[in-house]
Amino acid sequence: MKLKHSEYKQRTMKIWNEVAPRYHKRWASVSVGPFQSTAKLIELVDINKGNKVLDLACGTGVVTKKIRSKVGNSGYVIGADTSITAIKIAKKWNERKSNLDFVNIDAEKFYFSKKFDIVTCQYALFFFPNAQKALKNIRNSLKKSGKIGISVHGRKERVPFFSSILDSVTQYIPDYIPPGAPNLDRFGTKSALKKEISRAGFSKISVKEFVFHYSPGKFEDYWRNYIKYIPKPLKEKLDGLDYSKRKQLKQLVKEKTIQYTKKNGEILFPWQVLILTAKY
After folding, report:
1. Which one of 16, 49, 67, 273 has the fewest beta carbons within 10 angstroms of its own beta carbon?
2. pLDDT of residue 1
3. Other Cβ atoms closer than 10 A to 3
4. 100-119: average pLDDT
């Protein structure tokens, strides 16, 4: 049975409420792997002192924090996310400031009475079931001279940290990713991303490609940490595999990582990221 959009959103919110603390500790707060892009996003969207900025799907507030340092005391920043747990971490991670607020909102349903100079959105557009609705909300929240900065992961074959496991797991557990869930790499090419943003009415669209690198350690580290950090619904599916199939799955994943494994046994994955900027 396919998930309805509302069911997918509820499921995603539940998962993010669970994984936000370890996501923050393992990835976002230490700027490793794909989060090397945070500084690039801030640079490309060209935030100035006094700007009013919305950081949509702000997660644990890592991008928000950098924005706050750019706009200074004369600017204003709102970090917004659907996950209550992520917002709590974001508030703790960011110092309390009079010109910084965090709110819980749905990207497809929000409205602000005041307009922003800039809206940023890092690693979230592909999660929105109705990306057009979210993008049109973003555009309606901008001043006429406003601009956006959006980061997405590249196509799955360009992000083998994920695909090495997911392509293998789905051979053994076909519903590992629920039917009806949006394709998370549907904006993973420059043309697909540009097309989606253009459809929402934005202009002067520019997409830059970056390839970062990330080492999860040796294979056993990579596999063990994947099992450790995945959310409960996925872990339950993996735990449901019998021993022999789980062993076969692990071997299949290992074979996919060989091309990224150095002589000392350390894996070094490339990680493609696309960063888009556009004007109202």
Report:
1. 49
2. 66
3. 17
4. 95
Residue with tokens 């083998």: 160
Identify the H or E element spanning 137. helix 131-140
d(CA 219, CA 128): 32
**Segments making up each domain of the chain, as ranges:** 5-155+183-215+271-279
Average pLDDT over residues 40-50: 97
| Residue type at position 150 | I
- 191 within 8 A of 13, measured Cβ to Cβ: no
Distance of CA 167 to the CA centre of its chain: 19
Q: Whole-structure pTM over 0.85, yes or no? A: yes
Half-sphere exposure of 180 (CA within 13 A, CB side): 11
* Percentage above 90 pLDDT, the chain: 77
Length of the chain: 280
Please spell the DSSP secondary structure of 180-206, one letter per residue. Answer: T---TTTT-SHHHHHHHHHHTT-EEEE
Banded model confidence at residue 177, pLDDT cuts 50, 70, 90? confident
Superfamily of domain 5-155+183-215+271-279 in the CATH hierarchy: Vaccinia Virus protein VP39 (3.40.50.150)
Token pair belonging to 234: 């996925």
Adjacent-strand bridge partners of 120: 55, 149
